[in-house]
Amino acid sequence: MSALYDSLALAAWSALGCIAGGAWLFVRSAGGAVDLDVRDAQIGAAIVLAMPPAWFAWYASGAWSGRTWGQTRAGLFVEGTGARRMLRFAAHPLAAPLWAWLTLALLAAGQFLAAMATTVVLGAVVLGAIASLLGWVFRPEAPAVHDRIARTHVLVSETPS
């Protein structure tokens, strides 16, 4: 349930970025009456494209402290050090959009070798998500792959211990 809350927050942030970017383009083009300057189009695109990494920074700050917004709402706490929680965050299925966004950003910047590396990480995260889902079907009590990698545990509690 916590992943659903966090995914909905990502959707809301992305929608906000689209609305803000669209408003910028609408205003700068006088409601579509004039053609946009290249810089105005770039600013509109930057507003839209800035939302996913902004959300991930917000999500990572919660992951570092042991509780994302969704985990707080669900009464969960991730036990482990801050570094282990960040490793869990990087391997979590919710990080797949971050790795995809980073890959596309690196490709746009012409950094093909780095983009290949992030594509490998993205593939590993997706495979880990599939393995976690299969593990959950056959052994619901087994920890998820991202928890095994980071050696963290999710606790059900109202306050962190």
Any overview of this molecule?
The chain has 161 residues and is mainly alpha-helical. It has seven helices and two strands, in the order αααβααααβ. The chain has helices at 2-28, 38-65, 69-74, 82-91, 96-108, 112-138, 145-150, and strands at 76-79, 153-156. The protein has a two-stranded antiparallel sheet. α5 (96-108) runs antiparallel to α6.
Task: Report the major sheet.
Answer: 2 strands, antiparallel
**Helix content estimate:** over 70%
Low-confidence stretches: none
Order of helices and strands: HHHEHHHHE
The pLDDT mean sits at 91
Q: What's the gyration radius in Å? A: 19 Å
In terms of structural class, how would the helical and strand content be classed?
mainly alpha
CA distance, first residue to last residue? 21 Å
- Strand fraction equals under 5%
Number of strands: 2
Based on Cα principal axes, name the global outline: elongated
Provide a count of the helices: 7
Order of strands, widest sheet: 1-2
